Amino acid sequence: MNADDKFQQLWRSKKTAPAPDIKALLAKAAKVKGAVKRKLILSYVLLTATIIWICCIVAWSHPKMITTWIGVVLAIVAILLYLASSAGLIKQLFAKGQEEVPVQEYLQNMLQIREKQRHLQRGILNAYFILLFSGLALYMIEYARRLPATTAALVYGAVTVWGLINWFYFRKKAIAKQEQSLGAVISKLEAVIADTKN
Quick check: 50 pLDDT over 90? Predict the structure, then answer.
């Protein structure tokens, strides 16, 4: 028996991994989609409440400087930008009849959700943070002027540190976690489709 025959015999005798249970896989995919839905709904509620809170603070404090008003507008624009940009993802997540579609269509739906989420996380979230922290910095000018220089520097320093921690740690951690959960489901769906084609 030559080497080619041995290879062919080995190839025929190889054990294939059992295909994942499609119902369990779809249930896991639905669970991942549910988690994304809950997170987006929570962000909608919190960001809407934040806009209301900002408007109440402005109505109560009656700012005098133009920088304060520009800061308020930038913060509200940042929030509205995020809410408007995530509307497409919300619409797709709440689309009816996704559970009854074939696996290939379900995979396409999950791929579209991942792409919309990536766009939201990378492009829109960057703009959101830049606008929000620029607005916060401008808003604080009027009130920081009333403080002693060291206290004002401490306040600006604390806000800057908080922003950097959010930007470099929490944002990246949240993105990685969402990528991992969606990626695991998508790769298993792709494996099921590839297995049915063979």
Answer: yes
